[in-house]
Design a protein that fits this description.
With about 190 residues, the protein is mainly alpha-helical. It has a single domain, classed as Tetracycline Repressor, domain 2, CATH 1.10.357.10. The protein has ten helices and no strands. It has helices at about 5-30, 35-40, 45-50, 55-80, 85-100, 105-115, 115-140, 150-165, 170-175, 175-190. The longest helix is centred in the middle third of the chain and has 27 residues, at about 115-140. The mean pLDDT is about 85.
């Protein structure tokens, strides 16, 4: 096998392992797993896991980052599939909700309890809020949204997104994260439309 082929194989295997880890974590959470249990479930050695990360904590953080990178690609693809700013905001928030809809309550609880993973979620939420602001600005410039204070509207969305991430919306309303994002999209776009 050539060096390039070996590198491609290693990259593909690494991506496959992260995808398998992510599927497992999204379904079952991650706090209860040991590295031995993860290796057994993935049919690999612990040394293979150590090529992904130096410890279980780092493996969880890396898998969480993998989740958000993949989610960002999916969300941006949804935004790119529609043209109008209103449809883009709706597509954006709905896609975020759909992505989170794949996460079990156990995964979300583990995410909230594990600081490095929670920080990745919080960072991603801040990035998402900035993206919502950009989409609002685009809508105002296109005349599709009334003149609004885009920073305030984005801050309102951010506050709700953080409450969703922290589980406060679920506790107060019973809405799961995916449903809460869809409701946020409906309320936000209706509130700023011309």
């Amino acid at each position: 096998m050539s060096d390039a082929a070996a590198t491609d194989f290693a990259t593909a295997r690494r991506s496959q392992l992260f995808d398998e880890l992510l599927a497992m974590f999204l379904t079952e959470g991650f706090a209860h797993f040991t590295l031995d249990a993860i290796a057994a479930r993935l049919h690999c050695s612990k040394s293979t896991l150590y090529t992904l990360a130096a410890s279980k904590d780092e493996l969880v953080r890396a898998t969480t980052i993998h989740f958000f990178r993949r989610a960002t690609d999916d969300v941006e693809a949804a935004v790119g599939a529609v043209a109008s700013p209103r449809a883009q905001i709706t597509a954006y928030l709905a896609a975020v909700g759909d992505t989170l809809g794949a996460a079990s309550p156990q995964f979300l609880a583990d995410l909230a309890a594990f600081a490095p993973a929670r920080e990745a979620y919080e960072q991603n939420t801040a990035i998402a809020a900035g993206r919502v602001k950009e989409l609002i600005d685009d809508g105002v410039a296109a005349g599709e949204f009334r003149e609004v204070h885009a920073v305030f509207a984005a801050d309102l969305a951010t506050t709700t997104m953080v409450r969703i991430q922290q589980g406060a919306v679920r506790a107060a309303t019973g809405l799961d994260d995916a449903g809460a994002y869809r409701e946020l999209a409906a309320i936000l776009t209706a509130g700023i439309s011309v």
